Amino acid sequence: MALATAGTVGPSLSEKARSHVREVFRRLGVELREGSAVVAPADIDADAVMWTASLRPNTELAARAGLTLGADGRIAVDEYLRSVSHPDVYAAGDAAGAWSRQAGLLRMARATALPVGTRAGRNAAAELGGGTPGPLRFRYRAQVLSLGRRDGLVQMVRGDDSPGDRVVRGRLAVVVKEQVVRVLRSAAR
Ligand SMILES: Cc1cc2nc3c(=O)[nH]c(=O)nc-3n(C[C@H](O)[C@H](O)[C@H](O)COP(=O)(O)OP(=O)(O)OC[C@H]3O[C@@H](n4cnc5c(N)ncnc54)[C@H](O)[C@@H]3O)c2cc1C
């Protein structure tokens, strides 16, 4: 099995965390091809290919409806999650270029979609009920990765998602990841 990436593996991780990822891949027999962009079928010789090259917002309908999009194709919103061009429209999740003063522009993730969706819903309800919408207050704390069933990684990060020094590896990271998934799953119900 091989994993090809145009850049380095785990570009958002610290060097310490990245070397753990490389070590786990070595142990699991995964050949890591860093700096290896796949641009044509001939670039990769395989029986099966799983394409996981990032997320792309599905905002074509929003653009056709006249909502302003940001440079990354997401719906441009203010810190209340209102469209900058149509403030009576709220946007959340991968489709929205949500940002907070603490974290800057948020990346597309379930970990960000949930608090942003909650804030957008609360703001819409407040507006309809005569209340006062509040700004999104969000800061990152950690990036949590599964590395197979028996290993994982918790990269502690600063509020703006940049990696700090603290890294948790191995079984403890697996337990943390499972807890995070459990909490996110119950929050989504
Ligand atoms: C393989 C994979 C693994 C991931 N792992 C993680 C992870 O470990 N941690 C993490 O934080 N994030 C992870 N993510 C990202 C995370 O899943 C997304 O960021 C998150 O689901 C975004 O939530 P959302 O509600 O904006 O969009 P979605 O969950 O994609 O929901 C959008 C919904 O809108 C529907 N829809 C779209 N267009 C229309 C339309 N025109 N009419 C009606 N319905 C429509 C879709 O069918 C879908 O049900 C992962 C994503 C993938 C693909």
What does it look like?
The chain has 189 residues and is of the alpha/beta class. It has two domains: 2-54 and 140-188, no CATH class; 60-128, 3-Layer(bba) Sandwich (FAD/NAD(P)-binding domain), CATH 3.50.50. It is built from four helices and nine strands. The strands form four sheets. A three-stranded antiparallel β-sheet has the order 7-8-9, with helices on both faces. Strands 1-2 form a two-stranded parallel ribbon. A two-stranded parallel ribbon has the order 3-4. The chain is globular and about 60 Å long. The mean pLDDT is 94. Bound molecules: flavin-adenine dinucleotide (FAD). Flavin-adenine dinucleotide binds at residues 58, 61, 93-95, 108-111, 113.
Task: Please tell me what the overall shape is.
Answer: globular
Kindly state the number of beta strands: 9
Task: Specify the biggest β-sheet.
Answer: 3 strands, antiparallel
Mean pLDDT: 94
- The share of residues in extended strands comes to 15-25%
List the ligand species: flavin-adenine dinucleotide
Oligomeric description of these chains: single chain
Helix content: 25-40%
What is the gyration radius calculated from CA atoms?
19 Å
Structural class: alpha/beta
Q: Number of DSSP helices?
A: 4
